[in-house]
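Check out one such.
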Amino acid sequence: MIEHIMNKRAKLAELRHSLAWHDLPSDRPPVPLGNKAVDDLLGGGLRPGALHEIFARGWGAGGFAVLLALLAAGTKTLFWVRPDYEAMEYGVLSPRGLLELGGDPRRLVMVKARGSADALSAAGDILACPHVGALLLELEGAPKCLDLVASRRLVLAAEESGVTVVMLRAGANPEPSAALTRWQVASAPSSPMEDDWGNPVFDAELVRHRLGGLGRFLLTWNHEDGCFDTADIGTVVAASFHRQAYPQARCAV
């Protein structure tokens, strides 16, 4: 009986993966980010039950990853998994800061792992629960345990449970993975019209998208509406809608 259930789950995961691969409708609507240009490029928003990579091009990528994970989690619990040494390198999250961004600290669960391998193991356990809203997995550098096979396992687990995975990579170079989207993010200046520090602005470039084109955007976070707006700091980098992330023959990487 247990073997039958496991085989059934594997077949369902393969079916969902096939639907996403061929860009067929799924039973999980995308999560709008709020910016029309980005949402149109993504086919309506961030696709749930998938793996999305955020590579840091400097400071700011962590904030962008947190905000994506907040949107993906919705009213459910957000799990943030990171090796314990990353807190010493990049700091820890302030509950008050999360509240000011529009998040609910009561729906956030921080998980500290001894290393990257333990973080991946914890991520697999979390993805087995469909009641989780989203998983933010933070891994620095290029750990040996994070290879193409490991990313495929994350994708299959996410597709089966419907939990969205946002993987934050700092100090790392992009490598082959099974991620649906890949972003390279850096911070950008706030609007000079702001009287205070201003809302956070991100230089976000979508460099890989299995189901569509690529683009580069200057986005600011609207904490009142809980969404991304186009940053009003002068000239906005135009998005490239005509290019695909990879030629069709390389989509398996």
Notes: Confidence is low (pLDDT under 50) at residues 21-25, 235-253. The CA atoms of residues 34 and 227 lie 5 Å apart. The beta strands are 51-56, 77-83, 108-113, 132-140, 164-170, 181-188, 201-209, 215-222, 227-230. The longest strand covers residues 132-140.
